[in-house]
Amino acid sequence: MPTSAHQSQIQELEARIQSLRSSQVQEVKDQLREARQTVASLEAEIAALTGTPIMGTTPARRQRTSSEDVRKGILKALASAPQGLSQKEISDATGLQYQTVVLFLKKNAKDFKTTGQMRAKRYFLR
Prior knowledge:
The protein has 126 residues and is mostly helical. The chain has four helices and two strands, in the order ααααββ. The chain has two domains: 1-58; 67-125, Arc Repressor Mutant, subunit A, CATH 1.10.10.10. 62% of the residues lie in helices and 6% in strands. It has a two-stranded antiparallel ribbon. α2 (67-79) crosses α3 and α3 crosses α4 (98-107). The model has no long low-confidence stretch (mean pLDDT 88).
């Protein structure tokens, strides 16, 4: 049977182990912080030498195009093309994604006249 002296020694050793673990964790965290600072300074140096930012250093989020901007762009492109435009030509003229143009034209079909079928389909303003 463990005596109270043994119990106190066990508790003392467990506390010491916990202390050693926490100091090791802190050391590793400090090393990680230093490594990240080194990487950041190296990326900044590369960016300065090449003139281009390193991928991942500045998060580039896509900007959502508002539905009003999509509408204005497509209407402007069709207004400047009396011969009509295909979906691909509208996409190229407006700089919008092809699927954005397709979806917009599908949802707003009543606003446009069309001729042809499939790839030969052309869109006009009503």
